[in-house]
């Protein structure tokens, strides 16, 4: 009696009808801050690790808060930034 | 520990009591003995120092006139170029740099006055630091309590001078990096006017905020070093084209006629009792009762914060791309965050800087000097991550400079003076108008003579 190779038998096996179709995994809810950091670092060609995201995010929020404090101060349009370049 | 001042050393060399080589050998022996405790030095340049000291002795024996700092050993924060050493700037990455071909301008000027460079000093990585800690080289240690921070980023400079390893050191100050270690280590520090002293051949951090200056244990030594380092330098585009204005002859003029006030408002908010007590002692010593408010100081600190984060990020962008894992993570993560701050906020911060500069200059029509705390507290423990300011728990690292940042932001000259509180010293800032270092130094000298401020000798 000739034996059918195992690999061949397996290849002949019909698909199981009871097997549920594989669904794509649900997209995990991402923190928009982390998405911003990932997009920003990608655009700057800086490779970061996931483990760094939290600390970078905290620093970014603190710096932004300081930036918002500065931006909240009304200044005349013609205020020259300091320092002024001298040609 | 040798507690001799720079001026005492110079007098001893000039009078022939001591040779420069014996002084330098003593300094090198002290460094070898005490640096394992203090971790202030990252390198010594013993051979070069001996050669230079012998040259000073030869000049003396030939009857040549000696410089104002003849035979004085000094050291520099390791962001200054030292010929033959890679300029580390506290980093691991810069170990790969070629050795510097030439000394920084300020080293050349001190050596032209007879001082002798003995080595390079520990610092926070790339100067983005107020603690004096360094993940690569270890924390520099505070001679008044080895478990406490020196402050940073010029931590090794504070430790080396306060610990008696050298009487004189150089550091840099972008947001407080001379004044914070001066405060924690209980010594004098001068952050001159922006553009007064050349930064040529130093590793930068935030070009529009970077200053360099000296540390010492007496006001006279601070002034001696400052005087010989002044003068235009075409190698630093920011260095002002002004003639040297020596202050030493002015020191003894005292404070007569000077109008001095204490900074209120923001500069009282969040300060620990010891910081307020130090300011009170200095004010009492000067007979000052007037209080003045520096307008929008808190916003100025915010603007300095934004400019620092973004200019620092721009400086290191390529290293962040290629060597991110070689940074101290605490520095790297702040720099990466800084790279993603909108440019509009940065421009607004620079515009606000112009406005704030004009308002603060108006104050100097009313007063000649302003007193403010240098730090909100005495030195925290090494490794301490948070403290509480105004009831809010904050990170230590970025917040030790809350009182220094609004001042360096507009380049005002400041002398940090040490108030010898127990158990730990703390500094007070004497702030003057641009180009008036003389006023701040005169006030510091008067306070020192009155015994209100002094660099106390530690026991470690």
What does this structure look like?
The complex is a heterodimer of chains A (87) and B (460). The N and C termini of chain A lie far apart (96 Å). Chain A has helices spanning 6-12, 32-43, 53-71. The relative contact order of chain A is 0.07. Helix content of chain A is 44%, strand content 0%. Chain A has a domain at 29-71. With 87 residues, chain A is mainly α. Chain B is an alpha/beta fold and 460 residues long. Chain B has a single domain, classed as Amidase signature (AS) enzymes (Alpha-Beta Complex), CATH 3.90.1300.10. Chain B contains 14 helices and 13 strands. In chain B, strands 1-3-2-4-6-5-12-13-9-7-8 form an 11-stranded mixed sheet, with helices on both faces. In chain B, strands 10-11 form a two-stranded antiparallel ribbon. In chain B, helix 4 links the parallel strand 2 and strand 3 (116-121). In chain B, helix 2 (20-38) packs antiparallel against helix 3 and helix 9 (297-323) runs antiparallel to helix 11 (343-363). The longest helix of chain B is centred in the C-terminal third of the chain and has 27 residues, at 297-323. Chain B is globular, with a radius of gyration of 20 Å. The model of chain B has no long low-confidence stretch (mean pLDDT 97). Classes of the chains: A mainly alpha (87), B alpha/beta (460). At the A-B interface, helix 2 and helix 3 of A face helix 9, helix 10 and helix 11 of B.
């Amino acid at each position: 009696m000739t034996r059918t190779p195992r690999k061949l038998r397996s290849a002949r096996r019909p698909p199981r009808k009871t097997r549920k179709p594989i669904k794509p995994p649900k997209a995990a809810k991402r923190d928009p801050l982390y998405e911003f950091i990932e997009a920003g670092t990608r655009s700057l060609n800086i490779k970061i690790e996931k483990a760094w995201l939290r600390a970078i995010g905290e620093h970014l929020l603190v710096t932004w808060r300081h930036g918002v404090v500065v931006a909240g101060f009304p200044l005349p349009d013609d205020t020259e930034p300091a320092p002024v370049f001298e040609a | 520990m040798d507690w001799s001042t720079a001026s005492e050393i110079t007098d001893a060399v000039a009078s022939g009591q001591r040779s420069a080589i014996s002084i330098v050998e003593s300094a090198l022996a002290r460094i070898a003995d005490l640096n394992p405790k203090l971790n202030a030095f990252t390198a010594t340049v013993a051979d070069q120092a001996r050669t230079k000291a012998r040259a000073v002795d030869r000049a003396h024996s030939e009857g040549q006139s000696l410089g104002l700092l003849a035979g004085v050993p000094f050291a520099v924060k390791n962001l200054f170029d030292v010929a033959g050493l890679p300029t580390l700037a506290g980093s691991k990455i810069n170990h790969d740099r070629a050795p510097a071909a030439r000394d920084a301008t300020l080293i050349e000027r001190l050596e032209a006055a007879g001082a002798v460079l003995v080595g390079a000093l520990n610092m926070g990585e790339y100067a983005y630091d107020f603690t004096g800690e360094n993940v690569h080289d270890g924390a520099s240690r505070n001679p008044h309590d080895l478990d406490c921070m020196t402050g940073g980023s010029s931590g090794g400079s504070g430790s080396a001078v306060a610990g008696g390893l050298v009487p004189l050191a150089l550091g840099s100050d972008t947001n407080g990096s001379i004044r914070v270690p001066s405060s924690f280590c209980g010594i004098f520090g001068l952050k001159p006017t922006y553009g007064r002293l050349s930064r040529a051949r130093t590793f930068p951090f935030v070009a529009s905020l970077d200053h360099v200056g000296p540390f010492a244990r007496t006001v006279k030594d601070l002034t001696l070093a400052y005087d010989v380092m002044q003068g235009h330098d075409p190698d630093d585009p920011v260095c002002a084209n002004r003639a040297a204005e020596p202050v030493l002859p002015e020191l003894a003029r005292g404070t007569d006629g000077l109008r001095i006030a204490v900074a209120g408002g923001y500069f009282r908010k969040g300060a620990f009792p010891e910081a307020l007590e130090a300011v009170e002692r200095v004010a009492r010593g000067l007979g000052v009762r007037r209080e003045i408010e520096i307008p929008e100081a808190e916003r100025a600190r915010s603007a300095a914060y934004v400019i620092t984060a973004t200019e620092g990020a721009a400086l290191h962008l390529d290293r962040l791309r290629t060597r991110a894992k070689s940074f101290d993570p605490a520095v790297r993560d702040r720099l990466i965050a800084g790279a993603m701050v909108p440019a509009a906020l940065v421009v607004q911060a620079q515009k606000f800087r112009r406005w704030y500069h004009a308002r603060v200059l108006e104050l100097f029509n009313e007063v000649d000097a302003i007193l403010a705390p240098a730090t909100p507290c005495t030195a925290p423990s090494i490794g301490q991550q948070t403290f509480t300011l105004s009831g809010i728990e904050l990170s230590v690292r970025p917040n030790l400079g809350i009182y220094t940042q609004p001042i360096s932001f507009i380049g005002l000259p400041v002398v940090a003076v040490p108030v010898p509180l127990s158990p730990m010293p703390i500094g007070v800032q004497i702030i003057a108008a641009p180009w008036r270092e003389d006023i701040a130094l005169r006030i510091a000298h008067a306070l020192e003579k009155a015994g209100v401020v002094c660099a106390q000798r530690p026991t470690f």
